[in-house]
Amino acid sequence: MTRPGPADELFRVLTHVLDEAAPTPLLGPVRVSTAAEEVADRLITAVAVGEFLPGDRLPVERELARLLGVSRPTVREAISRLQAAGVVDIRRGRLGGTYVRDSWTEVSAPAVRRTLLPRWPEFEQLFDLRGLVEEMVARTAARRRLPEHIEQIWGAVQAYESAETGRQMHAADTAFHQAVLDATGNPQIVALSRALLTRVALGLPIEPHEDVREVHERALREHTAIARAIVTGDVELAGEVAREHFTITADTLREALSRGMAAED
Q1: Mutual angle of helices 120-144 and 187-200, in 10-degree steps
Q2: CA dist., res. 124 & res. 237, Å (int)
Q3: Could you tell me the pTM of the whole model?
Q4: Residue 21's pLDDT band (boundaries 50, 70, 90)?
Q5: CB-side neighbour CA atoms (13 Å) of 155
Q6: Are residues 99 and 169 in the same domain?
Q7: pLDDT: is 19 or 84 the higher one?
Q8: Residue 181: its pLDDT value, please?
Q9: CA distances from 207 to 175, 199, 248 (A)
Q10: What is the CATH number for 50?
Q11: CA 146 remoteness from chain centre
């Protein structure tokens, strides 16, 4: 029998952490007795931290129910709460749907506190774990990238550089990180990275940004540095820059919680 190698052992440990370590997981099904309130709080927080930007359309009811592990009536009630609070508009017709109206309203601070504060020790653990995983992702990509991956990575960097709106930045950011993941050539690594993003990002696999204008310059520098390291096969540098890059998400959530706590004073 072949003994498991270091990579196998790392994946086993990380999978165990994701599946079993958290006694009260943030992203499991919400408590039935307060499901609509919890879903509303989670969506308000997702908007507050920039997972969805003003003008963005939220996922459809069916998809939200699947992601958050609740029923469609629960999602419907939660969306009604967001509409009443002025966070979203509901539009009818061919291009209808639920659209973000404002990123921060008078209901945002208490929702952010209720969502983030009780689970903050778990978030800090996830930030650390995600840094380790994304460092591994970048290092693996630098070892295994193929010409088509290089083209994909540079294309995403250029798209991010030319992005003019928050939605364009979000799309280019997602494309860049997907290109790096693709370069690993390992679907298990892709799944692990996505699972961590989903847990950090409130059950919705979208990278949060506190303020896209403020993070754009830093993210562009780091995307470019990661891309160059991967293209040149500099394994150490790729891992080092990637680990630092993913502190953007941690900083964004910390800032949102700080703003929510300040509003309580």
Answers
A1: 150
A2: 24
A3: 0.82
A4: very low
A5: 10
A6: no
A7: 84
A8: 98
A9: 11, 11, 9
A10: 1.10.10.10
A11: 26
The burial of 258, by beta-carbon neighbours within 10 Å (0-12 exposed, 13-18 middle, 19 or more buried), is given as: exposed
Least confident of 17-31, 38-52, 120-134, 238-252: 17-31
Residue-number span of the structural domain to which 76 is assigned: 32-115
Do the domain assignments include residue 24? no
Mean pLDDT value across residues 96-121:
93
What is the tally of structural domains in the chain? 2
- Asked if residue 62 and residue 148 are part of one domain, the reply reads no
Q: 48 with 108: CB under 8 angstroms?
A: yes
The answer to whether residues 47 and 157 belong to one domain is no
| Contact between residue 52 and residue 58 where contact means Cβ atoms under 8 Å apart | yes
Which pLDDT belongs to residue 117? 94
180 and 91 assigned to the same domain: no
CATH code assigned at 225: 1.20.120.530
pLDDT at position 205, please? 79
Higher pLDDT, 239 or 54: 239
Quick check: 13 pLDDT over 80?
Answer: no
